[in-house]
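Hi L.,

As promised, Noelin-2:
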Amino acid sequence: MKSSVGAYMVQSGNPNLYGPVYLMKGNGPQDELEVYHTPQDVIFDIAAHYIPLPYHCSGTGHVVYRRHLYCHQHGTNLVTKFHLKKFEIIADLPLPGAGYSNTFPYSSGQNTDVDLAADELGE
């Protein structure tokens, strides 16, 4: 991974199984998700394929869970659920009162208004 900022995501579930690794470089706006077969492929920058997104994501707090990407849609207060196999938006959830476009940045100071997280069990 050449970028020092970004989102490194694996499918939640069984942490002992190697599955695809999803990578979104930078803190936004990004409209492409890189998919790697194994964590070792990330080290050697051997991407299996790329998934173009029909919108831009901001920040680094994205989540992959049950074949869906959840991310903060750039320039909005929306969290978007995108199906990684059907390549379609499943839902947009507005977060009333949530900051976006660096309204309430913390830590790195850029695009950190909305962060999502799930542990290895998806909780």
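The domain at 6-94 is CATH 2.40.10 (Thrombin, subunit H).

Thanks again for sending the construct details.

K.
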